[in-house]
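Suppose you are handed only these lines of text.
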Amino acid sequence: MRHLIDPLDFSPEEIDSLLNLADRIRSDPAAYQDVAAHKKLATLFYEPSTRTRLSFEAAMLNLGGHVLGFPSENVSSASKGESVADTIRVISCYADIVAMRHSKEGAPLRASRYSRIPVINAGDGGHQHPTQTMTDLMTIRSRMGRLDNLTIGLCGDLKFGRTVHSLIKTMARCKNIRFVLISPEELRVPDYIIKDVLEAKGIEYRETRSLEESMPELDILYMTRVQKERFFNEEDYIRLKNSYILTSEKMALAKENMAVLHPLPRVNEIALDVDDDPRAAYFEQVQNAVYVRMALIMTLLGLQDPKAKEGN
Ligand code: NCD
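From them, the structure of the protein bound to N-carbamoyl-L-aspartate can be written out as follows.
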């Protein structure tokens, strides 16, 4: 049985097949509408979410399956003190696959050890967010036509942003990638990513505070929100929350075919007038997320692709 806990749980070849399947779904969604008939997805979300939960639900419904879950943590038995291990044993009796978001790093991994059904990590604390990464990869690939030979700028909260950690880990496996890490000193990428990923693999990277200076060299600009909920005190958050705001003036410094990504939700780090710039790809990411999650559910459940013969 397969789980998706860490983005590296899938080999580069498996990610390629997943993205190819997501592309086939995007070009003919109706062909997939009964693929998961009678299958059930449980959503166990112990942290706030709009996109991730609803896109998982939309994905399962688009495949003809069913979804079950609870609206928020305080109405689940976790609030009575139930352990993750017990919860997942129980959910294994109700559903065929589960997507879990938890504030504790490692909670989905722990759940997978006790689960009888595939577990998908839908975000664990400030750690990883592998399904957002698959969405980011699909968007980068469809915008740029490749996942190699790219200069990728990541900007904002690189310390607590789990989408950043997962994206760096995964893109670090692609050829000729350069990272420009744009953040205030306090929100730098954690040392373990620098040492165990970038330096261990000899990947070119530069840390900087200046978004303006970096703009001209970027193929991808990945903006992020300052992660308020992971700060220990409000003063630090207030001091850092406006560190970077992407405006159309800054966009004027960028390459004509650069793509701006953002996992969303946006607070104020991208000015609204950037939305009309053709290089803004963040709402496309939201759409791609549904196709990627459809492809992932199919892959983890071992469901037949009705269009497999035509493509790949
Ligand atoms: C992200 C998350 O939850 O980590 N949101 C998402 O799933 N698209 C990013 C964020 O909350 O800033």
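What can we learn from it? Residues 51-52, 123, 129, 132, 162-163, 225, 227, 263-265 surround N-carbamoyl-L-aspartate (CB under 6 Å). The domain at 3-128+287-301 is CATH 3.40.50.1370 (Rossmann fold).
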